[in-house]
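// run 5 | inverse folding | seed 20
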């Protein structure tokens, strides 16, 4: 592995900005661990409306903010905020936008418990916002590692619309799978919007009905490595992984004190493949 491997983490949730879950705690721990092992990291998450900006000391990065992203003929302002986790010496970038992230909720309506109808559009904006910000930073990652389905539009962009960009053309893509499924399907225009965004995967028809399972099957086909973080992933996804051609790691046991070394080794194998 190069002395300073550059890893871009695209995370659905990170503790302490969102409540402690297996995913949010793991993302926070993993980023710190890879920095301690000599990697250079950039970490992004959505600025969901439940995140208390003053309490968490978020502030806007003026030089990166203000870009307008036109997605599906709609113009959305991209706002970038940043905060630090002092104990971990980790900096987190937040993707913000009034249309997508102002509501005081994460992915579900707190009253009904149902997922928001526009979560697909929100995920598309988040992924595009991350990659456009990385371009503004002129920072070239060696690995992009996504956590949570909401972050997993990123591999589709990288393999398609951003595939020829000098910053991303040689990047290795890793996705971690969790038991974070949603009921039903994403919005009806999800596939159409991705096509307009330049996503032309040969298997895109699988998300004509964009269920959680179908979406992740498409994501898996656009990665170099998959890490299974939760043993309770669906039988349908396990079956998909049986024919996976990339690097695969099952790392569901976080009680092993050396489990973080497995990620470092996995990254090394991905870069050498």
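// decoded
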């Amino acid at each position: 592995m190069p002395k300073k491997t550059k890893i871009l983490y695209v995370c659905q949730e990170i503790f302490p900005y969102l409540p402690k879950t297996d995913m949010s705690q793991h993302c926070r721990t993993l980023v710190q661990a890879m920095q301690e092992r000599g990697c250079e990291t950039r970490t992004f998450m959505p600025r969901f409306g439940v995140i208390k900006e003053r309490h968490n000391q978020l502030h806007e990065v003026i030089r990166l903010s203000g870009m307008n992203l036109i997605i599906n003929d709609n113009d959305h302002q991209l706002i970038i905020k940043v905060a630090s986790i002092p104990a971990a010496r980790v900096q987190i970038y937040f993707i913000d936008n009034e249309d997508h992230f102002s509501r005081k909720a994460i992915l579900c309506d707190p009253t009904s418990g149902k997922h928001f109808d526009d979560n697909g559009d929100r995920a598309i904006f988040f992924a595009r916002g991350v990659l456009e910000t990385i371009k503004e930073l002129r920072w070239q990652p060696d690995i992009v590692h996504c956590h949570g389905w909401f972050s997993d539009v990123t591999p589709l962009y990288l393999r398609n619309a951003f595939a020829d960009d000098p910053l991303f053309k040689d990047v290795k893509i890793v996705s971690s799978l969790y038991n974070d499924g949603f009921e039903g399907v994403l919005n009806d225009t999800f596939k159409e919007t991705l096509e307009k965004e330049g996503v032309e995967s040969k298997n895109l028809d699988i998300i004509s009905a964009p269920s959680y399972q179908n979406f992740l099957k498409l994501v898996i086909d656009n990665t170099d490595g998959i890490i299974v973080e939760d043993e309770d992933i669906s039988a349908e996804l396990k079956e998909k992984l049986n024919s996976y051609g990339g690097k695969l790691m099952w790392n569901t046991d976080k009680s092993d004190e050396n489990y973080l070394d497995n990620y470092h080794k996995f990254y090394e194998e991905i870069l050498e493949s």
